[in-house]
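Board notes (copied after class):
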Amino acid sequence: MIGVPRPPILDVPIAEAPIRLGQFLKLAGFAEDGGHARALLDASEVQVNGRVETRRAPS
C-alpha cells in the first residue's frame, strides 16, 4: 500500500525460544493477556511477514 505509514519495528527480548505467537503478542504489548491474543488471531488481525496468521503455534 503506497502512502500508508508502517509502524516502527520493535525489538522484543525473548528469554527462551521457541514461543507461541500469542506469547509474543503479549511480550510485545499488542495483547493484554492470552484471551486478547486469541481474539486478535481469531479476528485475523495479526500479520506475520505480510500474511494474515490465525494460528497460535505452528502446526
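Comment from the instructor: Helices lie at 21-27, 34-42. The chain has a mean pLDDT of 86.
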